[in-house]
Amino acid sequence: QVQLVESGGGLVQAGGSLTLSCAASGSIFSINAVGWYRQAPGKQRELVAQITRDDRRNYKDSVKGRFTISRDNAKNTAYLQMSSLKPEDTAVYYCQMDIRITITSYSYWGQGTQVTVSS
Q1: What are the C-alpha distances in Å from 84 to residues 3, 5, 30, 64, 105?
Q2: Which of 62, 65, 71, 70 lies closest to 38 in space, CA to CA?
Q3: Does the N-terminal or the C-terminal CB of the chain have fewer CB atoms within 10 Å?
Q4: Would you state the torsion angle of the CA atoms of residues 96, 100, 104, 109, taken in this order, to the nearest 10 degrees?
Q5: Which residues of the chain have pLDDT under 50?
Q6: How much is the pLDDT for 103?
Q7: DSSP assignment, residue 44?
Q8: In contact, 35 and 98? CB cutoff 8 Å
Q9: How confident is the model at residue 102, as a pLDDT?
Q10: d(Cα 63, Cα 117) in Å, to the nearest integer?
């Protein structure tokens, strides 16, 4: 069984910074792509940033230059560094990992962590 545990959310003032972590545990052979998503109240979940196993990254336009996604394959952990935060970044943030279990890959999600940016 695989579990993803997120941490690092909280309340921050506009212009501040937060770093989210997502640690995977269990019977993991390898982790392929990792994504960070967010969902604001009344809105659909959206992809914020994604990183492949070979460190190719892509970002939602509104976070480019402010957010950085990274991963530590040895620790099965992914990170989202967020800076210059804006009130519109307020949302529940979820990590998603494509994890290979033996010969099959599955998509796993974290429980979500609240990020609130005050103006």
Answers
A1: 30, 25, 33, 11, 35
A2: 62
A3: N
A4: -20
A5: none
A6: 84
A7: -
A8: no
A9: 80
A10: 14
